[in-house]
Amino acid sequence: MSKPLTRRDFLREGGLCATAATLASSPLAAAAVAKGAPRGPGIRWAKAPCRFCGVGCGVMVGTRQGRVVAVKGDDQHPGTKGLLCAKGYSLPAILTGGDRLTTPLIRKGGKLVKATWDEALDLVARRFKETLAAKGPEAVAIYGSGQWMITDGYAATKWFRAGMGSNNVEANARLCMASAVTGFMSTFGSDEPMGCFEDLALCDVLILWGNNMAEAHPVLFGQVLESKGANPAKRIVDLATRRTPTSDFADTHLLMAPQSDLAIANGIAHLLVKKGAVDKDFIARHVVFKRGKEQIGYGLADKSKFADEPKKATFEEYAAFLETYTPEHVAKVSGLSVAALEQLAGYFADPKLKVMSVWCMGVNQHSRGTWMNNLIYNLHLLTGKICKPGSTAYSITGQPSACGTVREVGDLAHRLPADMVVMNPEHRAIAARIWKVPVERINPKPGHHTVEMFRALDRGDITCMWIQVTNPFVSLPNVERYRKGARKDGRFIVVSDVYPTVTTDFADVVLPSAMWVEREGLFGNSDRRTQHWDQLAEPPKGCLPDDWQIIEVARRMGLGDLFPKDRATYVKELFEEYRQFTVGTGKDLGTFEELKAARGLRWPVVKGRETARRYVEGEDPFVKAGEGVSFYKNKADGGRAVVWLRPWEGPAEVPDAEYPLWFCTGRMLEHWHTGTMTRRVPQLNRAQPGGFLEIHPEDAKALGVADGGQVKVTSRRGSVTLPCRFAARGKVPRGTVYTSFFDESQLINAVTQDSICPISAEPDYKKCACRVEKA
Fold first, then answer.
1. Which residue, among 629, 199, 635, 207, has the nearest Cα to 384 in the 3D structure?
2. 770 labelled as ligand-binding?
3. Choosing from 17, 60, 149, 177, which is the catalytic residue?
């Protein structure tokens, strides 16, 4: 870098926000970007979190006469301090697309036709009751989202588990963060990070494990660059399978082969152990060693089951396990140089350096995602570089409430709130007490995880499904299988959304939802920060909140006693009931009134005081005096964290003679998931109007394809035709092509595979084998 950049410089000038410059063509968005935002008569400003990624940026929302007219960054927000990215500045426009759904629709004669709310809700309730009566609780399912608000997810899990005795409750966070959950649970006995966003500024070395932070979490990356301006010795290491905008700002860009991250992490550990560069005192007091099952498969078969077989190990056994991960061997597997591996190990080995590892879906959407989470924690546990300011391991979340709703509320097929699980009789008893239902009502058998849920829909084991706030018939891997399954006779699908999507095309009933600040809500973000906002704008007439839709259907099924009856107070009542699960567990949430008054509070919250870092004496109220660090949630291992013996294993599919290229996928700055919201923002859509394929110029030359030419990408599952680009924002190495899935007119996920991490059941979107032909 030729000059130090502030985070404002980065967001304004870093090339990534060329998009933001196009906002000037919109009076609405231009007002939002302008410093200070509009001050016209009658504008009322109030706090809310951003509707997009898991950073949870603080937003000030300006409304006039019940409509959102502007947004600006919230200078009082302690996590993001007044900054937004291009998507954040576009928030007003996501409410006002011309094709907003405002009327319930019912499929009749093969076509969706307008209906009343009573007609639609009565039909949904009747079909759920009929399915329960005919086929039982395993035939019904609800599929939600990390974009669900906390009370949406809580209403769904209570309706299903306490009302219908079904555990077929899942959310799309299974597709992006499940391996983070199983990584946390298997290492620490509790989900979610121990550190906080402030650690990004405090670290001396930031290692990004397959994380294009500049595009995926630009406000956080702006904080990193601002801290680098104040500390020029700070080092950013970008470990990735392609060159990205993050690489341009990094001090070191390390290009690795897909799935070689497992070998790299073990190779670093090998060097640390060989050099004696481990914190023996920390290990003795805070660590145990375990090894699990190896050669665990890839979860490709329907109804595949997995049970790990953890066994205790010793440090000496761990050292012996690492013997094969020599720098020379790891270099051969990964493509990194021996010198690069030595440098990475050197950062961890130096007791003077504060090292922070950060990752997101590059690690999690991985056929060995749980293992890779474990291996990153290993490096920090071995060196004691964990739970310290600027020295920790941090998994960032992709969606705004994947943490607060899915992970904390327990909207996964085997979970209950606050890390509890349906298999544990004590946990079921707690849930039954809070829900005021017989404990026998709560089914001890886990439901279907997301991929298996849609396989079950294909097979006919599930025939009645409600999908809220997500677009699975674009976002699922190997998506053509599940699209075909959804069209089979005997399936009944309800979809709640704000705009027409590919998924609403498959629906028997479409319900129009109120969105973001059109309703009161709560999110929980990557920083363990739970944020509340009031209803600030009126939804279009005819739109209802997702949680209230669930409550109305439950009432029509005779299960109304499970839920509050007053529309004016039900959000508070639901949240305070849910909060009972968390109190005294180390995952304690602030009260509704505390959250209403604050710019979010990071749990555990005890006596109104939030926690910046977990497991640390003096910060975490559950760590006793004199303990220093205590991984108290991992009771099975005496309050110690686990260092796992996890091997490198290859991916489920690798290039061969028939499919000679790697096909990789990921995100981009301008668009969000399948583009349901952002492609309705004219400025964002003009900046990136459609999907494209990044390809190396030499690979394109061999195909006889020019920059911008059409190519057909084919895998063993399906194909898609895209324009190719040589000089895109990212640059792939030879033998690799790359794209993003935001454009629902191009089914990228017809190509991707539905292999999963057998422990987390999260799919591996990041890599499969393909061939590319001139179209």
1. 629
2. no
3. 177
As a whole number of angstroms, the distance between CA 561 and CA 555 comes to 8
Asked if 420 is an active-site residue, the reply is no
CA–CA distance from 93 to each of 59, 67, 99, 147, 688 (Å)? 14, 11, 12, 18, 16
- Say whether 546 counts as a known binding-site residue: yes
pLDDT in tens, 637-647: 999 999 999 99
Q: Report pLDDT digits (tens) over 420-434.
A: 999 999 999 999 999
* Comma-separated ranges of CATH 3.40.50.740 domains in the chain: 105-176+400-602
In this prediction, residues 345-351 reach a mean pLDDT of 98
**Nearest alpha carbon to residue 676 among 744, 582, 772, 602:** 744
Q: What is the pLDDT of residues 60-84, one digit of tens each?
A: 999 999 999 999 999 999 999 999 9
State residue 728's pLDDT score: 86
Asked about 177 being catalytic, the answer comes back as yes
Q: What CA–CA distances, in Å, run from 144 to 154, 168, 283, 450, 576?
A: 11, 11, 40, 10, 21
* pTM, 2 dp: 0.95
| Cα-based torsion angle of the residue sequence 268, 274, 277, 281 in order, rounded to the nearest 10 degrees | 110
Going by C-alpha positions, the residue among 293, 538, 587 that lies closest to residue 416 is 587
Q: What is the pLDDT of residues 657-710, one digit of tens each?
A: 999 999 999 988 999 899 999 999 999 999 999 999 999 999 999 999 999 999
- ω into 604 cis (within 30 of 0): yes
Contact 571, 520 (CB under 8 A): yes
Amino acid sitting at position 605: V
Does the annotation mark 398 as catalytic?
yes
The residue annotated as part of the active site, out of 164, 176, 356, 387, is 176
The C-alpha atoms of residue 620 and residue 613 are separated, in whole angstroms, by: 7
Instruction: Mention the CATH class of domain 178-396+640-645.
Output: alpha beta
CATH class of the domain at 661-774: mainly beta
CA distance 207 to 184: 19
Domain 105-176+400-602 grouped into CATH 2.40.170.20: no
